[in-house]
Amino acid sequence: MAVDGNWNLTMTTPMGERQATLSLKEAGGTLTGTQGAEGNTAEIFDGTVSGDAVNWKVAITNPMPLTLEFIGTVSGDSMSGEMGIGPMGSFPFTGSKA
Fold this sequence. Notes:
mainly beta; Lipocalin
């Protein structure tokens, strides 16, 4: 699956652009892996893959405890979509294979 591997993400947030790393593995439509940013790494959860569509969630603690929900599309070595930040709304993200 094209989603497997390591990715570099750029997320547009209310606090400016943020960078993150993402390591993904797809098996039978289930997406697992880890996401890291600013020295913190967390397991992703509720990850799914369907065709080119990818969805996952990650719980962060910095700058505040939040669950981020990513809904995106993979096209070759790039990924793009929306990152939901709970009550703060949704913001765009992009990714490229590392």
